[in-house]
Design a protein that fits this description.
mainly beta, nine-stranded antiparallel β-sheet
């Protein structure tokens, strides 16, 4: 009869996470009496024990400070962030639940037949496809893009009196998608198979502060000291979100969309 297989199915499916790649670069320099600058960047490439999950994040930033005159200084900063994160449902709703309940005699190392169709974990009219098919066709993903920019102007009026202006812009775009691809063996029976839920969120924030400040100083010949600050703020934020869903995908290349 041969040796009876007795192995935890999770040991065959989950893989040792690949080493995390975290690269960063930073540089700074001087422009003499004119000012200084800095540049930096980093890239993170992280994988999970589930072969379908990963996190990629890119960050780039720069700063420059300039002495325009002996009375006026300016500083500008910009930052670019991009994050991509595909992932699976976890716990009871995901493949973890299936793996825990598989008998140790079940070999899941091969998830596809030679013709590309999935190996099935169960029978009946609605069989469950292999875990390899599920992670390739049923997943979530989120892509985030963000720009942050700021500028500071400082005017030294004299005698410890300063006029400052700080302006900033922040743009944020998040694209989320949940994909449950069509199961052709169900569509051939006229059974609903497949759905998608997608959402795009955008946010733009503008902020501007204008202040007039007076440095601390003695009040005449007394021991009392005075200082002052007066200013105003302008703030604006715009937010938008678009959501679309698709369901009851029965015929290939045909989609019955709802709430879009």
């Amino acid at each position: 009869v041969g040796t009876v297989r007795f192995r935890d199915a999770r040991a065959d499916f989950y893989k040792m996470a690949a080493p995390t790649s975290d690269n960063s670069l930073r540089g700074a320099g001087s422009m003499g009496d004119l000012g200084t600058y800095t540049l930096g960047g980093s890239y993170l490439n992280q994988h999970g024990v589930n072969p379908a999950e990963k996190l990629n994040r890119f960050n780039l930033n720069g700063n420059v400070a300039i002495h325009l005159t002996k009375w006026i200084t300016a500083e500008a900063s910009v930052q670019r962030i991009r994050s991509n994160n595909p992932y699976q449902d976890d716990s009871f709703s995901g493949i973890d639940h299936t793996l825990i309940n598989l008998p140790p005699t079940w070999n899941i190392t091969n998830g596809f037949m030679p013709d590309g169709t999935p190996v099935f974990l169960s029978g009946g009219t609605q069989p469950q496809p292999s875990l390899q098919w599920q992670i390739a066709n049923e997943f979530n993903k989120e892509l985030t893009n963000r720009w942050i920019a700021s500028q500071q102007l400082k005017f030294n009026i004299g005698a410890g009196l300063h006029l400052n202006n700080n302006a900033g812009l922040d743009t944020y775009v998040s694209e989320y998608g949940r994909f449950i691809n069509q199961r052709p063996w169900l569509a051939s029976q006229g059974i609903n198979a497949g759905s998608t839920n997608q959402r795009k969120s955008t946010r733009t924030t503008i902020n501007d502060d204008l202040t007039l400040s007076l440095d601390s100083r003695a009040l005449g010949e007394s021991q009392f000291r005075v200082s002052g600050l007066i200013g105003g703020n302008l703030y604006s934020q715009d937010f938008a979100q678009l959501t679309g869903t698709g369901t009851t995908m029965v015929i290939p290349d045909y989609f019955n969309l709802g709430n879009f």
